[in-house]
Amino acid sequence: MAFMLKSYMFSILFNVILSSNIVILANSFHINQ
């Protein structure tokens, strides 16, 4: 149970980091053009 919760939290954290990186990349690409 605790392991499932930990992996669930980790996947959420990973998705948040990934999506924020995509937003930053998109913003920098937009600024460069």
Describe this structure in words.
- The structure is a single chain.
- The protein is mostly helical.
- It has one domain (1-33).
- Helices cover 94% and strands 0% of the residues.
- It is built from one helix and no strands.
- The protein has one helix at 2-32.
- The protein is rod-shaped, with a radius of gyration of 14 Å.
- The relative contact order is 0.11.
- The chain crosses the membrane at residues 12-31.
- Keywords: Membrane, Transmembrane, Transmembrane helix.
Write down how many β-strands occur, each being a DSSP E stretch of 2 or more residues. Answer: 0
Radius of gyration: 14 Å
Order of helices and strands: H
Largest sheet properties: none
List its traits:
mainly alpha, 0% strand, transmembrane, membrane
Summarize the structure.
Keywords: Membrane, Transmembrane, Transmembrane helix. The chain is mostly helical and about 35 residues long.
Give the helix/strand layout.
Elements: H1 2-32
